[in-house]
Write a structure and sequence with these properties.
Elements (H helix, E strand, L loop, with lengths): L9 H16 L3 H4 L3 H20 L6 H14 L19
C-alpha cells in the first residue's frame, strides 16, 4: 500500500486507519515500547490523515498520494518493519 506505484484510494486509507485504531485500542506491545515523542508523531500523522479524508472527497494527484503515504507510514510507525518514514512532506494544496 505504501509502494510508490500503488494508487491509494479512500477505502485503503480508511482500512489502514481502522487497523491502526484497533492496534492502539488493543494496546499492541509494539506501540507500548515506543517513546512518548514517537507516539505523538504517530497521533499527529493519524489526525492529518483523518482531516484529509474529511475534507477531500475526490481523487488525489501524485503529490497528494506521496503525502498520504508519508502520513500513513508515520501513523503506523512501530507497527510494521517499515523503513524510516520519508521526510515530512507538506500537505497538498487544493
Amino acid at each position: 500500500m505504501l509502494q510508490p506505484n500503488y494508487p491509494l484510494c479512500r477505502d485503503d486509507l480508511i482500512w489502514m486507519m481502522d487497523f491502526i485504531k484497533k492496534r492502539v485500542a488493543e494496546g499492541d506491545p509494539r506501540l507500548l515500547d515506543l517513546p512518548t515523542p514517537r507516539l505523538f508523531q504517530n497521533f499527529h500523522a493519524f489526525c492529518e490523515l483523518a482531516m484529509m479524508i474529511i475534507h477531500n472527497r475526490g481523487k488525489v494527484d501524485q503529490e497528494a498520494d506521496l503525502w498520504l503515504k508519508s502520513r500513513l507510514a508515520e501513523a503506523a510507525c512501530g507497527l510494521f518493519r517499515l523503513p524510516e518514514p520519508p521526510t515530512k512532506l507538506n500537505p497538498p494544496t487544493s
